[in-house]
């Protein structure tokens, strides 16, 4: 992964990824809760994808 472009080759926009990671870390939500919330907004995101985002973004240590 290129540290200058951490969201290159992702299927979702940077804002969607960071929003899910932020909500997961800030509020007591499960990956499946977030999957359902995204589906209500018209985005089909699997809960395992959100889990991978959380693990990846924690490693990159993004500041919110």
Number of domains: 1
Q: Roughly what fraction of the amino acids lie in strands?
A: under 5%
The parts where pLDDT drops under 50 for at least 5 residues are none
Shape: globular
SS-based structural class? mainly alpha
Order of helices and strands: HHH
Mean pLDDT: 83
Kindly state the percentage of residues in helix: 55-70%
Quaternary organisation: single chain
The main pleated sheet reads as:
none
Q: Count of helices?
A: 3
Number of strands: 0
Radius of gyration: 11 Å
How far apart the termini lie comes to: 20 Å
What keyword list fits this structure?
mainly alpha; globular
Describe the structure.
- The protein is mostly helical.
- The chain has one domain.
- It is 58% helix and 0% strand.
- It has 3 helices and no strands.
- Helix 1 crosses helix 3.
- The radius of gyration is 11 Å and the shape is globular.
Provide a brief overview of the structure.
The protein has 64 residues and is mainly alpha-helical.
Layout of strands and helices, then pairs:
Layout: H1 14-26, H2 31-40, H3 47-60
Helix pairs in contact: 1-3, 2-3
């Amino acid at each position: 992964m290129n540290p200058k472009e951490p969201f290159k080759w992702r299927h979702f926009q940077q804002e969607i990824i960071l929003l899910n990671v932020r909500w997961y870390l800030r509020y007591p939500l499960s990956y499946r809760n977030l999957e359902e919330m995204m589906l209500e907004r018209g985005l089909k995101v699997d809960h395992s994808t959100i889990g991978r985002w959380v693990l990846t973004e924690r490693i990159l240590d993004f500041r919110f």
